[in-house]
Known about the structure:
Blueprint: E1 13-16, E2 19-22, H1 27-31, E3 43-47, H2 55-61, E4 68-69, H3 71-83, E5 97-99, H4 108-123, E6 131-133, H5 134-146, H6 157-160, H7 164-177, H8 193-215, H9 226-252, H10 256-260, H11 264-271, H12 280-283, E7 295-297, H13 307-322, E8 328-330, H14 331-349, H15 361-369, H16 372-384, H17 387-410, H18 417-420, E9 430-433, E10 437-439, E11 442-445, H19 448-455, E12 461-469, E13 472-480, E14 493-498, E15 503-512, H20 518-560, H21 570-573, H22 584-609, H23 615-640, H24 644-648, E16 653-654, H25 662-668, E17 669-671, H26 691-712, H27 715-720, H28 757-763
Amino acid sequence: xxxxxxxxxxxxxxxxGGVDQVIIRTGEDIARLPELDQKLxxxxxxxxxxxxxxxxxxxLIDTDHDGRIRPPELLAACAWACAxxxxxxxxxxxxxxxxxxxINHNTEQGAALAHAARRILTLAGQPDAAHIAxxxxxxxxxxxxxxxxxxxxxxxxxxxxxxxxARDAIGHILITQGGTPAVGEKTLPGIDxxxxxxxxxxxxxxxxxxxxxxxxxTGLALGEHTLKATQAMNAVAPKVEDFxxxxxxxxxxxxxxxxxxxxxxxxxxMAGKQLDLSSADITTLPLAPITPQCVLPLTDGxxxxxxxxxxxxxxxxxxxxxxxxxxxxxxxxxQHIRKALAPCQQWLADRPATSLNALDDEVLQALxxxxxxxxxxxxxxxxxxxxxxxxxxxxLEKLLRFKxxxxxxxxxxxxxxxxxxxxxxxxxxxxxxxxARSCDLTVQVKDAxxxxxxxxxxxTYLAYCDCxxxxxxxxxxxxxxxxxxxxxxxxxxxxxxxxxxxxxxxSITRIIENPTSIAQAFFSPYKKLVRLIEEQxxxxxxxxxxxxxxxxxxxxxxxANIPLKPAGNTADALPAAAPHRTDVGTVAAIxxxxxxxxxxxVGIFAKFVDLGVWIPLGLIGIVLAISGPSMLIAWLKLRQxxxxxxxxxxxxxxxxxxxxxxxLGRSLSxxxxxxxxxxxxxxxxxxxxxxxxxxxxxxxxxxxxxAIAAWRLQWFDRWTAPTxxxxxxxxxxxxxxxxxxxxxxxxxxxxxxxxxxxxxxAAR
Length: 764
């Protein structure tokens, strides 16, 4: 606990992922961690499984055992570890060894830990050693587990050794109460104090219940033999009641005997089966043939499946109660026997319901008359006497694990310095090698479909993979944060190396597409256009091939079905060829379409040429019009690319955005590069021929030269000059007709002048 009036701690932060993250490097930082505002923590929860961290350490921190680490549990672990040491700087020096002098002897628990450390070293043959190692504590724990009394409060049948009474009692407790599973060196299940006390409590209830009957034997029909007679009667009572009910019904109406006795069809059905006396087909039959006399034979003529039970009933109940050796039993005698044994039958019905019903009466009687309870409880007490040493050993193991792992966990929980400093974060499962690059940002995933629902918000290109190694299977998600993604598709295979260096066969099963860079987004529209053209060409080629195959099949079928005729009539045998007809309308439509397209292209090119010195800006504008939207979208998504949703989908609770900028992305996904000091031979014997490329370049140059020449000679102006409209000739009104002729009339009006040569040429 900090002394009063302690000045505030001076924290240091670094900027990474768009978030200010605290630097934890000293023992004072760990001890003063409760003073840090949790809004500044990077994570607020993490799972105890599926991350690259010691599971035993996480289980020691996870005090509520819910499989998640939260800030209160982490703060409690830091406070406990600091309290056991003289100075918290020991926690800032990770390692699995600890100087015993560093343990705080001023507290009761610290003194106990120091004593346990010296005791372990003494038992290991190192009484003068000054440092205790985690390996020494673990070795002692293994020895304790293998010892007869290890302090865990659990004993097995082997703990009893040669004590047969205690061994048998422990076995009976395991049968009725269950046992703890075998753990570590204990290859057998065991029992604890709670199970043993529950067993002997049930045994005491049965003993008290039995004592009631033994105290009242004088009032029973057969004395102490009444219990055995009642049990023999109960074994056959349902079948005896069934027999007498059938017989009384037959006495009421003799016609019922045929239906109430087994039919020949039932026996015929049993004839084809493998039978024994315990078969249901036999046990369900009546005890004896049904007759109106209502007499039950007890020896001869009875159902063989019930012969033994009837004989025991006769010997223990019928003969003693009737006072004679009876071979038959009437309904009245049966009612007399039931009435005589009714008190004992009620006593049996009042037996306490316990878990000991699976044990025979002889076993229960032997346990009640022996000192098994004292022997078993003594073994448990002797084992519990070692519990103090066991508790101190476990606490010492906890302290050593916290010294080794606590700082690493803080730098992967309170801050993500291990990730942003590229030291390997605990959530990184390994490295995936695929498509000529390595992906370091890989996270273990249990359910890819469920994970993808939230991870898609990370705005990152994600590839989910199934990894298989020696019969084991694991799911991961890898983030591709650099390079192109043209050849990433479901089903592509790669190799995944986990943090231990083991290689796994990896195969892509699901992809979430997002841009990896602005450069990749720049070429994306053109690649999509080429891909679309290729797909359309492939579809049309496939359709054309299908039509050709169909046409060939039709032609082949027609030729195969031509009837054979003499050679002289060969000409008549061949079908007349259909005249070839050309659709003039189609040709005209195609011509008009091509003309319109060419006119549009010429107009666009003419306007483009009119730009003059601004042609480069026009080219840049065209490129931006095509690639600009995809680049803008990529820029927006790259600004939003973060690590948070990927980890949130894996069970973390990320407190910040944790951005993955372009520079960090290039370091997380590294593409293949030839070493700088390597020698390269650029001569490729299998290189593609460049002749088509040169022909294409030459053709483009010729077309460009022709276009420039046409522009200089103003051919485009002539092609695109508008046609002047020709005014229609003026309509002259007819001259007025005088009644008298005009000898000196003027000459007729001259004809309008001919159209200009340019207009005539344009009209033509």
